[in-house]
């Protein structure tokens, strides 16, 4: 059976990626996480775009393991903040800050923003790097707005403060996992990637 490595140390993101791939019926392809391969030094995400960071991670995994490697780089982009936090989403409140601190800082920065100034979107870029083969990038976006307060216990990252346009007034953290998968930025990026993953079998 062919194997693909998902180069993510985020357990919740890995579970989401695996769930989306399994639901899409990518049979005959074993999806491995970092815990399934020999440990290697994870690269610093020094890129200035989601595309650059996704490729950095996918290239490192393919080089270290010899396996086709899928990596995702994603973030939260607020229009009125010139697209920030963007690639800095995971460390918006500092390199060692967690999801809650990042959300609280964002809400504090936007506390006086009018509703029409709260437009935002999630962005996901998936990179697939095949040793001695192609490098493929796909991108998905999920449009909505920043809520005035966090709500919901599902998801991770900025999900509790994101009100997607297509979620009927609920935050991304209030959606059931399968519903979120069908709507999300990551689900859209992976949908574009599926034919390339299927070709690995």
Automatic annotation (TrEMBL):
Q: Which cofactor does it need?
A: Mg(2+)
Task: Give any Gene Ontology cellular component.
Answer: cytosol
Cofactor comment in the record? Binds 1 Mg(2+) ion per subunit.
List of residues binding substrate? 8-13, 74, 156-159, 180, 185-186
Question: Which keywords fit this entry according to its UniProt record?
Answer: Hydrolase, Magnesium, Metal-binding, Nucleotide metabolism, Nucleotide-binding
EC class: hydrolase
* Residues annotated as catalytic: 73 (proton acceptor)
Binding annotation for Mg(2+)? 73
A GO molecular function assigned to this protein is: ribonucleoside triphosphate phosphatase activity
- A family per Pfam: Ham1p_like
Record field: catalytic activity: dITP + H2O = dIMP + diphosphate + H(+); XTP + H2O = XMP + diphosphate + H(+); ITP + H2O = IMP + diphosphate + H(+)
What GO terms describe the biological role, i.e. biological process, of this protein? Answer: nucleotide metabolic process; purine nucleoside triphosphate catabolic process
State the EC number(s). 3.6.1.66
What is the similarity comment for this entry? Belongs to the HAM1 NTPase family.
Functional summary from the UniProt entry = Pyrophosphatase that catalyzes the hydrolysis of nucleoside triphosphates to their monophosphate derivatives, with a high preference for the non-canonical purine nucleotides XTP (xanthosine triphosphate), dITP (deoxyinosine triphosphate) and ITP. Seems to function as a house-cleaning enzyme that removes non-canonical purine nucleotides from the nucleotide pool, thus preventing their incorporation into DNA/RNA and avoiding chromosomal lesions.
Note the subunit structure: Homodimer.
Q: Which PANTHER family match?
A: INOSINE TRIPHOSPHATE PYROPHOSPHATASE, INOSINE TRIPHOSPHATE PYROPHOSPHATASE/HAM1 PROTEIN
Q: What's the protein here called?
A: dITP/XTP pyrophosphatase
